[in-house]
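Everyone, study these two lines:
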Amino acid sequence: MVKRKRWTAEEREAVYKKMDGHCAYCGCELSLEEMQVDHITPLRRYETTEGSDRPEPNSLDNLLPACRSCNHYKDTMSVETFRSMLEREPEILARDSVAYRNAVRFGLVIPNPGPVKFYFERKGECDGT
């Protein structure tokens, strides 16, 4: 079983710098103190899959900075599962939330369904990585 690690100040700073002080998912600005360290490939996936060419579970290559909201919402999902869940949100809200439907009806909220592109993907396009 892969154990959760306590990060040193230097490790946290290295993760923080990967996205220049932004959440890798939503892109909001973060202070180093607010940042949470997210495993791109969740630790539980390492427990069930042997012999992969993935980076080590706690290596910098498998870590991204995240805001508390994104980190908790992503939980133990893969990036692609998290993306799929977010892309379904407008449909789920329209189906299940009267408040959401009223906000749409009165023009307070404008649904914008479509593909989700995370900040770390958009950032790579902007800086050529």
The first strand starts at residue 36 and ends at 39. Strands lie at 36-39, 63-66.
